Amino acid sequence: MNNNQSQDNIMINEDSKNWQLDDVRADHNNQLLTTNQGLRVSNTDDSLKAGERGPTLMEDFHFREKLTHFDHERIPERVVHARGFGVHGYFQAYESMAEYTKAKFLQDPSIKTPVFVRFSTVVGSKGSADTVRDVRGFATKFYTEEGNYDLVANNIPVFFIQDAIKFPDIVHSIKPEPHNEIPQASAAHDTFWDFVVSNPETAHMIMWLLSDRGIPRSFRMMEGFGVNTFRFVNAEGKARFVKFHWKPLLGVHSLVWDEAQKLAGKDPDYHRRDIWNAINRGEYPEYELGVQMIDEKDEFNFDFDILDPTKIWPEELIPVKIIGKMTLNRNVDNFFAETEQVAFHPGHVVPGIDFSNDPLLQGRLFSYLDTQLIRLGGPNFHEIPINRPIAPIHNNQRDGYHRMTIDRGRVSYSPNALQDNTPKPASDQDGGYVHYEEKVDGRKVRQRSESFKDFYRQATLFWNSMSPAEKQHIIEAFHFEVGSVIDKNIKQRVVDMFNNVNGDLATQIAMGIGATPPNSSGGNDVTAFSPALSQENTIKVPQTRMVAILAENGFNYNEVTQVMDALRGAGIHPEIISKNLGMITGDNGQQLEVGKNYLTTASIKYDAVYIPGGRQSADTLMMQGDTIHFVNEAFKHAKAIGGTNEGVDLLASSALQGVSLASSSNQGQLMSDLGVVTLGNSAYITNFIPEFINAIGQHRHWGRQPKKEFVPA
Ligand code: HDE
Description:
The chain has 3 domains: 49-387, Beta Barrel (Catalase HpII,  Chain A, domain 1); 457-537, Hemocyanin, N-terminal domain; 546-697, Class I glutamine amidotransferase (GATase) domain (Rossmann fold), CATH 3.40.50.880. By secondary structure, the protein is of the alpha+beta class. It has 19 helices and 19 strands.
């Protein structure tokens, strides 16, 4: 047989994967019901019985097929990252990266490479809540013309452990405790903190996990990090160490802990709903791909080991070069077929991307393939449509569970003469993958490199880089997580361990959890900080934010419509909330439709609140406990709040401590204080609107909580 080159020459574009999926999409609209054998079914509501009240008959093949299929509907959930949400999109390079890598999808800015991204939490079961405190997975499959490349990343740039052999231990410790399967999707329990204090290499990752990064506002507002050190290799064979970054164009933003916990009950699907709705509205999440590169010759020039996955490469030291952009623009047709069956593997690489000896990465290269075999039932998972590369597959692998390909011919071995020794290995020039020829020389030892043994200095760098509000959030997270631990010895050891990071931090932790503060001052000599680590310095834009407008009959129609139009114009989504669903009537007799009532939503689902004027509306709102609670909760969560005219009266009767409001004696006054924007007279509404939009874009207004700001002990 000839290797049919023309058949294999493929043109990749954004829609290539979508077209490929067309082969397996099934639309059952307006069709007659059939069995899986294609037999038309006359009744699917009554089983076949011997008499109307008699026993069901074995003969009922339709009943047995339907129930058997149902009984087998589930596959094992992922052992970690069980709860996830997948979306399609495409990636485009900004410029050719040929100087650094021969990976074709990074060469030509005109090529749109299709991608599939699965976001996930790590610890919880498939049915757990989205907003728990956890690391988020951010796994991307690039369907390139050279085969699939998987960038299996997290939203935190470091990991708990340094060697993959400890992975079962860390995961066992953080999962629900085995005797009673409690708690679900949470690190706040004894076994996890026992692991932490027994493994000081976890210190840096714990700082990130307990920071705001552990409770993202949205998948659309998270960074992604490849964590492990990889290699770029160019066409000349020159290699560089590389770390991968995703940077969201909406900035990096988080929830607050109280909000995250409440959302877990009120809307466990908060994150998946958020990205699903955004994509359906055409607000496509975008992330820039960045790389940090280190020359092979500079491998040992840093005060940390560049192969250690508990270390970042500080961006101020090794800048992130932005090399392209990913746009997520299509939701899945079917969750199971796509999101549940997608199989990622850091070993899915293309020429130009290679590995390092990072011991975590080396272990991952084994684990991901192994896990797919048990989860997806055999070695043919690459044939499941979402996993199929766009590049053609030719090899002598055959058979196995659920084989779909009908391989023709009698040759399934190599070398062979009967088929002119095809399919034959491709040379480097033909795109054959050649591993980077790293020189390795060593004794077989079960040991950790001495250069991996600095566990605290970067944890201190992280702490130093946090704003006062971020520091306070970390302390409160310790109070919750370690406060939930029962064993007093473990609690004390947490204090002692984090005294190595920072003495003030350890003292503050101790005070909240009933442990003894350290007697030595603690910490280390790191005084540096990295601005790139603080979310305070992230992109802040109002686009795609959700605003609740609280109104009742008699609301000021002109104000509300002007504000809604302006918000929409700024890419913000206003929604009217009222006691009852249906229509509410404004002060001019015109009506607007209510989006939600107080039972079907809550302030935690919005980024900001606006209370319009209208005497009757404001008076009704002031009588409603739900409304007052809504406003107070938004205030507590540091969200933007707007009020105009009589709406300001409602704010005045809420518990917005320490905030100055526009006064009714100065009707034209616009007041903007700590993210609360108020106006006495709607004639000046055009002044109010930009100020309110600006407050929304700030994400949160931490200055409201001065009493809670971190005060060194
Ligand atoms: Fe994973 N990891 N992991 N991991 N990981 C899995 O593979 C593993 C690690 C990450 O949406 C599993 O298909 C080992 C780091 C993501 O389907 C499993 C080690 C990072 C996902 C596995 C690590 C990740 C996984 C479970 C060494 C950040 C979800 C299901 C300690 C770079 C992918 C599966 C998806 C999933 C093993 C550490 C990211 C068991 C042995 C570091 C995003 O194979």
